[in-house]
Model the fold of this input.
Amino acid sequence: SAGTGFIGGTNGVQLQFSNNAPPSVVADNGQQSFPVIVQAQNQGEQSVAASNATITLEGFSYEAFNKSQGDLVKPPAENIPANRQTPDGDTIDAAPVFTEFPDFNYVNNVQAGYETAMIARMCYEYGSTTSSELCIRDDMLTADSDTPCAVSGNRQTSSSGAPVRITGVEQEVSTSDRTLLSFTVQNQGSGQASETGTTCDPGQGERTAGNVVVQFSGLSGVTEFDCRGHEELGPRRYRLRMSQNDLQQGDSFTCDLTIPEENRNNREEPFNVELSYLYETSTSKTLTVRNNPE
Done:
């Protein structure tokens, strides 16, 4: 059966503002300087390189806080580690990473207090790994009580913790030397996925929403591999074109595998499927600006 060496879960990096950074209430007229500190906590199983992530502050007038637009975008302060599992099966939670945006100061004068939103948005490269097994028989069409598995039916899977991951694998017999594998991919997190290989930089154009890159490994007995209707990027590597709505509901793709006679005997052959994508998550806080006469 498929391995269970993953922690699992449906989250990636989660954001929140540090306590009192920013404060809930700030003074006007440039009388109160404060930092904004964004805490990033990885709740999944893939680490995030700081060079592959961007944190952006938005939702407010940056000029009013004595900032330029460029001051509101930076990478995390350091690489964001992933949760780990010990050989005994215990989970070691990753330490959070704190990224500071210093010296905010509301410089305008307000006659009456008003509220403004502050949103921290993070775009980062992420992914998941799913382990499963392919059922192979001497003759893929012939049922044999001595075989260890059934060619047609749902396959057992184990997936690493991540927001977008494979949630189901189904095998179906095709011919005596071919079989079909169908995979369900689902965004189970609260953010949005877009195509890896593009950019998190908000100044570099729109990202391609919903596209996920899939890479297969293992399956050494398979000589031909074709994931129908999806762009092939390299050996057993494909770009899956999926809309955000389809990903939220769970979208499927199918691959046609050819196993020549010399590679067929009654067995289960393990394989891994790696998904890669950009993911975007956010957090927000309401700031109240109050008139504070000098």
Q: What stands out?
A: The longest helix spans residues 244-249. Helices lie at 244-249.
